[in-house]
Amino acid sequence: MKTFLSVIAFVAVTACGADGVTGVTQAQLSGTYSVNTVNGAPVPTAVSTAAGLVTLLTDQITIAENGTWAEVYTYRVTNANGSVSNGADNDGGTYTLTGRSVAFHSTSLNGTVYTGTSSGNYLTLNDGANTYVFTK
Fold first, then answer.
1. Are 87 and 79 in contact, with CB atoms under 8 Å apart?
2. Cβ–Cβ < 8 Å for 74, 86
3. CB 30 within 8 A of CB 65
4. Rounded Cα distance, 118 and 95, in Å
5. Is the distance from CB of 27 to CB of 12 less than 8 angstroms?
6. 54-91 pLDDT tens trace
């Protein structure tokens, strides 16, 4: 299950109170965030994968000031044969913050790195295939 989820890794974060010149601090970035959209579509939303149709139901990520993050998400998979299964999973690791740019390093998904940019209470995150917007 983690193999296909690494393609659809449901991660994201937002920052608040950023200044336009220096970006955000870890203190400003820290908090709990919920996903709003995937590829511009409101959640719940479905994405086609080799495993079938994956529908993201919920996704919440918690960012800490100490440079770590943790995520919990729920999803539904509809296989090509029509069978449906629900699941929940988690991810986490460390992050680096440079100005408004954030890189999340997964310790759960073989070192996968997700990149994003923060703007106010939003963070746009990309996993290489999909774009996620989260709100604090």
1. no
2. yes
3. yes
4. 13
5. no
6. 999 999 999 999 999 999 999 999 998 899 999 999 99
